[in-house]
């Protein structure tokens, strides 16, 4: 164990979460399967090996799928509020384990400890949400056009839900999916990111205990581990009616096409290119923390991270100086140290992409206001720490149109009316999150109207990241169109059925059709 791990209590956290040096990466609940190949999980915090996870073999994948399909048949017969009770117990276990799990998230993924805890809090919150939902999976009755007939719409459990998650929210995104899927009567197979596999082992240990205490069968919660080939087994598998995938647009394009080819459903939550519009009446007290947290929080590795500031020319210099000034206060360092704001990027590949993006922005004519670069020296040996950069750029630059998962913020000007800023905000291929800072009611309403932001999330006087679980989360265009978490996102985890019942003694046909025999 490294000094960092020892001094920040990681060792103890790993022990509480049941993480060993080598962990089986395949599980159907309380049964675990080991393959020969392993994925080594190195911490971007200090570059040290945290532990290994075995890769799922084809044979073990089959065992998982057999177990999951069998479990579904039992699980769907359990009344939804009782399934909610399982989720309630899971949420309580997460409350008990918030500290160690938050620490593991921070150490394995590199986000600040506060954000690690915040991520576990999102899991707890979605459990609470799902428990309430377990008594509200309501259908509806619909008036029939025929006498003596009634129409209904009801929601049935769907089956095995395949979850593919990204490294940046290594536990919360799984929980958004599973908590809802379980109350809906589905069972889940989760392929975690190979960049944060230990988080999947920890979560599986937690839920496995709850399932055992409730005498539930194997297969309700399964994990598999490995690279994209393991994901492909799921996307091609007709036994999985729904694939929920979070990650890059590149990945989503492949997954979406494969799943559609076999008429499966997919829920895609892909890249964002999120902007904040800063209008003349914007309050700097709100703008600065909103923009800075949005851009540098999670080291710019949220799909909701703020990538672009679209600032009215009349306030441009003032806003620019305030943001640049705030960047001078940012402390980069070990994310487990609560005085630090920005931790490392996930790995050296991410560092290379960050450096490359800065070079591209410069080559396209960008004016660097805060020079980025790799942080070197004591405490930064992992080579994954980078400085948040600010570049004045134009919206049409190829690199600005592209999502770079790193703390690079592009500043650009708009002139005239808010519509011009909205056009710029919408002028990218992605459509996840967006925000406007204004005290003008008309500007705010225009931004939220049908001709306003084209994103799945549109905020007024808050930043682009940090959405609450109660709303549907996801976005349009290349973000993939999926919605998960709150509102009525649960419907994607169920199948809709329309029923018409005739309680008359006649058989009138719909549309007034006569068919006399
Ligand atoms: C993600 O980056 O994939 O809104 C999810 C947010 C978080 C979730 C981000 N609640 O920033």
TrEMBL record:
CDD domains: ALDH_F7_AASADH (cd07130). The keyword NAD applies. Pfam families: Aldedh (PF00171). The active site is at residue 269. Keywords: NAD, Oxidoreductase. SUPFAM superfamilies: ALDH-like. Residues 34-498 form the Aldehyde dehydrogenase domain. It is an enzyme of class 1 (oxidoreductase). InterPro entries: Ald_DH/histidinol_DH, Ald_DH_C, Ald_DH_CS_GLU, Ald_DH_N, Aldehyde_DH_dom, ALDH7A1-like. Its EC number is 1.2.1.3. One of its GO terms (molecular function) is aldehyde dehydrogenase (NAD+) activity. PANTHER family: ALPHA-AMINOADIPIC SEMIALDEHYDE DEHYDROGENASE. Belongs to the aldehyde dehydrogenase family. Homotetramer. This is aldehyde dehydrogenase (NAD(+)). It comes from Ulvibacter antarcticus.
